[in-house]
Write a structure and sequence with these properties.
The complex is a heterodimer of chains A (476) and B (1069). Chain A is mainly α. Chain A is 68% helix and 0% strand. Chain A contains 16 helices and no strands. Chain A has helices spanning 30-42, 47-73, 88-99, 101-112, 122-143, 170-203, 207-216, 224-257, 269-295, 304-334, 338-349, 353-368, 373-376, 379-406, 421-444, 450-468. In chain A, helix 3 runs antiparallel to helix 14, helix 6 crosses helix 7 and helix 12 runs antiparallel to helix 14. The two termini of chain A are 14 Å apart. Chain B has 1069 residues and is of the alpha/beta class. In chain B, the strands form twelve sheets. Chain B has an eight-stranded mixed β-sheet with strand order 5-4-17-16-15-6-7-14. Chain B has a six-stranded mixed β-sheet with strand order 23-25-24-27-21-26. The longest helix of chain B has 18 residues, at 46-63. The chains are: A mainly alpha (476), B alpha/beta (1069).
Chain lengths: 476, 1069
């Protein structure tokens, strides 16, 4: 029985050349990691969990009730209008798809690049991905005028019609991109969880838990053969998921880029959208993990170094996004296209100027604060900044979708979009759904990939011990 | 005979005499809904409706002389010559408020669903377009209508129409019956006969029906002591008086086609004028830019349809018009006397306002003098007698009378037997009239306030025949349901003296009877209406009218007769004494208010017509409201803000109106439409807009000078279909930049020097990603809209709505930009961009002119909507129509986003099952019973449910019918003119031409080959099938404004347009 780790803290954010900073701090043993992670699900949940769950769950119930009302009444309950035929629901969709980017990026791309620090955060990030995709998937489904026929977008052999969907439409590509992404991410997430679920099974004290975790872990025994196949499958899935990280938001951006609307019709969208998605995804991971780490006492596993690394990514992608904004303006001017240049001038100085400048200040200015180490290693500040980043990214989609539509070619058809209460409540409701799922995840599933953490721990534990100058406490 | 609840009673009847009634059950009925909820049994299916209507069709057939036997029979055996689902067409006439329409009704299985002009009618036939045919080929003939005629069918099926006799006793109103009403009328006759009708009066709504006037004459003969008075809600007594004095009464009718120079002085010839359809037609005849092209001057305070169509428009306060007319008369006199026009060489744009006015006077005078006998001066009928007289005098001096200006003799059987409203009011208040029969017209709401009709009438016992349980019904003792003009026999005599019959298209749906029938009972000679009409026509044709002639009359809808011209005696030596001052009205913060009949609801009688309420008014694009229309400068001077209420005080009367700012309205003038603010119009019209009736003191009070207007800060939400919000300066300057490239226009001069001026040369070759599949096509449908002929009159908008079952969405939804009109008329202001930017900003642009552009789906060959629809719900037909498969549409709305013309309409809510203000959780109103209303639907067109995208289909149902007809009856091929779209058919100027582009000889092909032809947003390479013909303004060079002179640069050279050319490169990819 491993002992609970000591509270030996070490600042692992300092880069000392030639020496790797430890990924896990606090003199962890394999046992203490198991203990720490499992206790999240095994111990009674803190009060804050119940409060958060009560709020999230009621918001989720409201969300589904509103969806029922929407399907009963029609999409006219939203503020969508002519010419802004797409508004908040699509903004929310793109927003949630963007959020969904960090998980797979962390688990797949960073895995392939052997970025071992990913192990402490990938599970939660992947979970977040799945839940964000759930939220994202709902919006286009209910956004169509006849939601009960939304399945017509899927290519199924229809005996009545003898027809396929229209393959030239980016919306159809979207269906493929998002559903592929959702299924691969889900599979990846679940597969990675199997060894940890087995740990949970083994530690279960009630029959029911044992049964459920037993089923979920698919009879994992931890044999070398299991491990070998697991590792192989994991690598293959990572390789499969990696292009999806890039493709899904690329395809989402095609919804806009392939149209001929000024402000939508630009070739910069795919990289710009992907950068923005990673940007918002990481911001959401920060927003969630900092409180989780604090509440469940996981500071030794999710260390400051993890958070700092993510903040650096936020800084990079935020700057990329800023560059994209500038490039759009440059192209609008350089292309000498009157419609295009008006669209961009109108974005910044037209009736939606407020949205544009919220976007710029949140997405471009805010993350620049992360140049300062003090700021990027302060949990409170980074949560605040990451929340601003997510507000900014929501507004980015709003600016792209709504302002471009509101003033296109014919001034006779210009309009000004105003959201209704339903728009607002449903955005809030989708957060309720997201948070409900995330809280349930914390409650019932391994929040941190224990097996993977352990895999990368030994070397660092060793190094850490050396650093501490104490060979005698070496655990191996 | 009420149809309440009882499903087994006889529904259709011939006359009052035939009526039997069970009063007991009538009177205990308390209806839950004031609408036709109980008229139609729940779940009345189309099949059941067919059965019911079979009866009426059989009868209607008798009416139309197709079937001689008058009996009620179901379609058990198919009546001869009737094929279910194939419409019949009946020529008929239509009259309301004294306005006459000559129509061809489309009758589908016994119910009229569409009204269009009767192209054979002499009123229209004389002004048939000569561009493409010699007048012999009837296929091309189309008469054109106005919005009122197009919307009339909706009123016919209005469930709010009164459907029962109501009797008021001791403050309680109970449902009564026609039998009771009949015995009341009989008793009344007996009583009245005792002292020759003393104490009795008849107040009837304005009418041009010879039969009704004859009937009233009969009444006057039966009861010599009775008072008879006509209620004209829209009356111009000054004009009448002048005509009386110079021509012994008569009808003033202009001949715009006979005039090369048309000068409209505060006269909305093409808009609110009674003869607007005729005038618009005549105007359109000479609008092809060649040497024949006419020139329209418009001097006015409001921005009217006429002003929008004018070649030269001068904004001038109505109160200063006398000065203008006097100056014009002086100039004409001088030039007739040999003086040459005093026109300096300076640039018109740079002149001060006074100098502009002076220049316009000189140029108009020069043009008038140069075109004596072929010019026309029309003066707004609301102006004073002196001004009216001056107008006629000008025409007389120019030799126009009898040529372009005609005064027709009027014969009125009632002449001498009727009194004016003032006299009637006096007799009521003095107690001389105790009982009054009101035949329509809603005097309580529409009546001028000076006579205090709404007050005085209360002291009399009123028997009221009405369509609706309206404001007058509230104070009446007996309220009798009237028939809709499409339900009854009647007749009309047009201003030019052409006689026409109104034949019923359907049996009275809601238990109504016509005024003829009611009067018949009252005077004890209940002749069936048809018989009475026939008596009238026999009398008019000097006693000889054979059965065959009668049949011919019913077939044609009219008999050719024309009133003779009246002799006009004008003293040419007289002069109009008026101060020619054109100073600033706003100096002492006083303004003039010009009241006008509403272009949508007229005097308020059409307030319950949802099509009209939702019709964007021609210039403001305002729906569901009236407003105080002022110029930006007036608003600034008087602290008025768009979207806020203003208080108008005039002579101790105050009304509140929301402010609406329109550039180009004369500074210091405020325009308000009457007919709004109804309190008892029905579920659609109640509480729509603000009433200005309080300002309508007497029939002639249209122009109120010295009004005090103050802004209140109370907000009021207006719903417009264009410029949904106050547009910022950035947007306005962009609109000013873009509008000339969208609606291309040039002066006649520029056109003559370069006919292809409207073409924008592309710098780059436009290439497409797609190759059009090679299909073996017979037809390639296309359309051309001639912006030079379009006046923006809106008739096409309602025609499209009626033809294609387009839903009404209500004010709130319009505010959200969700109106469903497939065809909209875009209105842009052209202005001097440089000076606007420099001087006043684009919110108050300099030298404004208006252009209209009807826009519906342009059926792109390379349609962007089709490429992005994930379910292939919008696809191309082989013939080039961009079609919608409603059943396949799931409503992603991507197509609408990708449509550069924004012509796609989405059913956000279930607009077709309910309409009104609110939907869903906000819907606290009783839902309108739509059973009856749905009868107006065209069975050829799918009714769209919610969640589905829709748009113009080029009237694909008409195309299909045309092809079927060509196969069945013709040589298998559709020829040019066989198929007309609904908008084309409704257009008075034939600005819209539809046809086959594969046929090189077709009108549409020829027009698309015209040098003026251009595609809007051509640079996107979507290849629209609808093309526009650039507008040409026939502006004399002395009055050409800077930006008009430089129009050519819109195509080439100017910086802004390079942007447009370059737009090609990125946007078309």
């Amino acid at each position: 029985m491993a002992s609970i780790a000591t509270s030996f803290e070490i600042d692992n954010t300092i880069e000392i050349p030639g020496r790797r900073a430890p990924l896990v701090t606090g003199n962890q043993t394999l046992g203490s990691v198991t203990e720490m992670v499992s206790s999240v699900a095994e111990r009674p949940q803190p009060k804050i969990w119940y409060i958060a769950f009560a709020i999230s769950f009621s918001m989720m119930v409201m969300f589904f009730s509103l969806i029922a009302y929407l399907i009963y009444m029609g999409v006219g309950i939203w503020g969508n209008m002519s010419p802004v035929f797409w508004a908040w629901p699509i903004v929310n969709f793109v927003f949630w798809v963007g959020i969904a980017h960090a998980g797979t990026l962390i688990s797949a791309v960073l895995f392939l690049f052997r970025q071992n620090w990913r192990t402490s955060i990938n599970r939660a990030a992947e979970a977040m991905t799945i839940f964000a995709v759930v939220c994202a998937g709902i919006f286009p489904g209910i956004h169509v005028g006849r939601a009960w026929l939304a399945f017509w977008l899927t290519p199924y052999p229809s005996l009545n019609l003898w027809m396929w969907p229209q393959f030239r439409s980016p919306l159809l590509w979207d269906v493929f991109a998002v559903s592929t992404y959702a299924s691969v991410s889900l599979m990846f997430w679940y597969m990675g969880m199997i060894p940890d679920l087995a740990t949970y099974r083994d530690r279960s004290k009630t029959k029911l838990r044992r049964l459920i975790y037993g089923i979920l872990c698919l009879g994992w025994t931890g044999s070398t053969r299991h491990w070998m196949r697991y590792e192989k499958a994991y690598t293959i899935l990572a390789a499969l998921a990696t292009p999806l990280v890039l493709s899904v938001h690329t395809v989402v951006s095609f919804d806009f880029a392939v149209s001929q609307l000024p402000g939508w019709h630009t070739t910069i969208f795919p990289p710009y959208f992907v950068a923005g998605a990673i940007f918002s995804g990481f911001a959401m991971v920060i927003t969630l993990l900092v409180p989780v780490r604090k509440i469940y006492g996981l500071e030794h596993l999710i260390t400051m170094r993890h958070l700092e690394n993510m903040n650096k990514i936020i800084l990079v992608t935020g700057s990329l996004v800023g560059l994209a904004y500038a490039t759009e303006f440059f192209m609008a001017w350089y292309s000498f296209n009157g419609f295009e240049s008006y669209t961009f001038i109108n974005r910044a100085f037209g009736p939606y100027w407020w949205a544009y400048w919220i976007m710029v200040s949140c997405n471009v200015i805010c993350p620049q604060l992360f140049w300062f180490k003090k700021l990027r290693t302060s949990p409170v500040l980074m949560v605040i900044i990451s929340i601003f980043v997510n507000i900014g990214m929501w507004f980015e989609r709003f600016v792209i979708t709504v302002t471009s539509l509101s003033r296109d070619f014919l001034p006779s058809s210009w309009g000004y979009f105003r959201p209704t209460i339903f728009d607002m409540l449903m955005l809030a409701g989708s957060f309720g759904l997201f948070m409900t799922l995330f809280l349930l995840f914390c409650r019932f599933l391994p929040t941190i990939a224990m097996a993977e953490v352990k895999g990368v721990m030994s070397a660092h534990a060793h190094a850490e011990a050396h650093l501490a100058g104490d060979h005698g406490q070496h655990h191996h | 005979m009420s149809s309440n609840g009882n499903q087994n009673r006889v529904r259709y009847f011939r006359s009052l005499a035939q009526l039997e009634n069970t009063t007991e059950f009538e009177e205990h009925l308390h209806r839950e809904f004031p609408v036709a909820a109980s008229e139609f049994p729940e779940g009345v299916s189309r099949r059941r409706w067919m059965k019911l209507m079979g009866a009426s069709l059989a009868f209607g057939g008798a009416a139309g002389c197709r079937y001689q036997v008058e009996q009620i029979a179901a379609f058990v055996v198919r009546p001869e010559n009737h094929v279910a689902g194939v419409p019949n067409y009946f020529a008929t006439n239509f009259e309301w408020a004294g306005r006459v329409m000559h129509l061809l009704a489309t009758n589908m299985d016994g119910r009229p669903i569409k009204l269009d002009g009767n192209p054979q009618h002499p009123m229209y036939a004389s002004s048939e377009q000569k561009d493409f045919h010699d007048g012999k080929d009837a296929k091309f003939a189309s008469a054109g209508t106005d919005v009122f005629a197009q919307a009339a069918v909706l009123s016919l099926y209005d469930p709010d129409r009164l459907d029962r006799v109501i009797r008021k006793q001791e403050g309680r109103s109970v449902d009564s019956s026609w039998a009771a009403a009949e015995s009341m009328l009989n008793e009344l006759r007996t009583e009245l006969l005792k002292d020759e009708g003393k104490g009795f009066a008849v107040l009837f709504d304005a009418t041009r029906s010879p039969s009704l006037r004859r009937k009233l004459k009969e009444l006057s003969a039966t009861f010599p002591q009775a008072t008879i008075s006509e209620l004209k809600s829209v009356a111009y007594p000054n004009q009448e008086k002048v005509l009386e004095s110079v021509a012994g009464g008569g009808e003033l009718v202009h001949q715009l086609d006979a005039a090369k120079i048309i000068v409209a002085l505060d006269a909305d010839l093409l808009g609110s004028d009674e003869h607007a359809v005729l005038y618009t037609r005549q105007f359109g005849m000479n609008r092809t830019p060649n040497s024949q092209m006419n020139r329209l001057y418009c001097v006015e305070s409001q921005y009217s349809v006429t002003g929008g169509s004018a070649d030269v428009r001068l904004a001038l306060n109505s109160s200063k018009l006398p000065g203008f007319v006097s100056a014009l008369e002086a100039a004409v006199d001088a030039q007739l006397g040999g003086a040459s026009a005093d026109i300096a060489d300076s640039d018109y744009s740079d002149l001060s306002y006074e100098a502009k006015v002076a220049r316009v006077v000189q140029v108009i005078a020069r043009d008038l003098v140069a075109n004596q006998g072929a010019s026309l001066v029309a003066v707004g009928p609301h102006h004073s007698e002196e001004v009216q007289l001056a107008g006629l005098r000008l025409n007389a001096k120019l030799g126009n009378i009898g040529k372009s200006v005609k005064v027709f003799q009027k014969s009125d059987p009632l002449a001498g037997s009727s009194v004016g409203l003032a006299e009637l009011a006096a007799r009521i208040s003095s107690g001389n009239v105790k009982r009054i029969l009101v035949l329509g017209g809603n005097p309580v709401f529409c009546g001028p306030t000076e006579f205090r009709l709404s007050e005085t009438l209360k002291s009399a016992e009123i028997i009221y025949l009405t369509d609706y349980e309206d404001e007058t019904a509230a104070i009446s003792s007996w309220v009798l349901p009237a028939t809709h003009p499409l339900e009854t026999w009647g007749d009309v005599l047009s201003a030019t003296g052409v006689y026409g019959v109104c034949q019923p298209q359907i049996e009275p749906l809601l238990n109504g009877h016509s005024a003829l029938e009611v009067l018949g009972v009252l005077i004890g000679r209940p002749v069936p209406a048809m018989q009475f009409v026939r008596e009238t026509v026999t009398e008019l044709s000097s006693g000889m009218f054979t059965d065959n002639q009668w049949k011919q009359l019913l077939h044609d809808g009219f008999v050719t007769m024309e009133a003779s011209l009246a002799a006009v005696n004008i003293d040419a030596s007289q002069k109009l004494e008026a101060e020619a001052g054109f100073g600033d009205l706003l100096k002492d913060r006083k303004a003039e208010v010009l009241l006008l009949p509403s272009p949508s609801v007229y005097d308020g009688r059409l307030a319950n017509n949802a099509w009209l309420q939702e019709l964007p008014q021609p210039v403001t694009k305002l729906t569901w409201d009236n407003a105080l229309i002022v110029s930006p400068r007036t608003a600034k001077a008087l602290d008025l803000k768009q979207g806020e209420l203003a208080r108008v005080n005039h002579d101790a009367v105050g009304v509140d109106l929301p402010v609406f700012i329109v550039p180009g309205v004369a500074d210091g003038s405020a325009i308000a439409h009457i007919g709004y603010g109804r309190t008892a119009a029905g579920s659609v019209g109640n509480g729509v807009g603000h009433s200005v009736q309080a300002l309508r003191r007497n029939p002639g009070s249209w122009l109120l000078t010295g009004a005090e207007i103050r802004g209140t800060t109370r907000p009021y939400k207006l719903s417009t279909t264009q410029d949904h919000f106050a547009i910022d300066e950035l947007g306005l300057s962009e609109i000013a930049k873009r509008a000339p490239t969208l609606v291309r226009e040039g002066t006649l001069e520029s056109y003559q020097s370069d006919p292809k001026f409207a073409h924008v040369e592309m710098h780059h070759k436009i290439e497409s990603l797609w190759k059009n599949p090679a299909v073996n096509i017979d037809y390639a449908w296309g359309m051309t809209i001639d912006l030079n002929k379009c006046t923006g009159c809106n008739a096409c908008v309602i025609a499209c709505q009626a033809e294609n079952n387009i839903a009404v969405v209500g004010k709130e939804q319009v505010a959200r930009g969700r109106e469903m009109h497939w065809l909209r008329i875009d209105r842009y202001f052209h202005c001097d961009p440089d000076r606007s930017r420099r001087e006043s900003g684009f919110a108050d642009p300099v030298d404004v002119t208006i252009v209209h552009q009807p826009l519906m789906c342009v059926h792109c060959e390379n349609a962007p909507c089709e490429q992005v629809c994930p379910v292939a719900a919008t696809v191309h037909t082989e013939e080039g129509i961009n079609a919608m498969a409603y059943n396949r549409c799931v409503g992603t709305r991507y197509c609408a986003n990708n449509c550069p013309y924004k012509v796609r309409r989405f059913n956000y809510l279930n607009y077709n099952t309910k309409y009104g203000y609110h939907y869903g959780w906000q819907d606290y109103r009783e839902s309108v019973n739509t059973k009856l209303q749905s009868l107006v639907l065209n069975p050829e067109v799918t009714v769209r449910g919610r969640g589905v995208m829709e748009k113009c289909t080029y009237c694909i149902q008409r195309v299909q019918n045309g092809k079927i007809k060509a196969r069945a009856e013709g040589d298998g091929r559709v020829h040019d003119g066989d198929i007309k779209s609904a908008c084309q058919e409704a257009c008075p100027t034939q600005a819209i031409v539809f046809g086959d582009l594969n046929d090189r000889a077709s009108r549409v092909s020829q027009l698309q080959a015209d040098p003026r032809s251009y595609s809007m947003l051509e640079e996107l390479n979507v290849k629209p099938r609808t093309k526009y013909l650039a507008r040409i303004r026939n502006v004399p060079k002395e009055l050409t404004m800077n930006y008009q002179r430089n129009t050519l640069s819109h195509g080439h050279g100017a910086h802004g347009d390079h942007d447009m050319e370059h737009a090609t490169t990125s946007a078309a990819h």
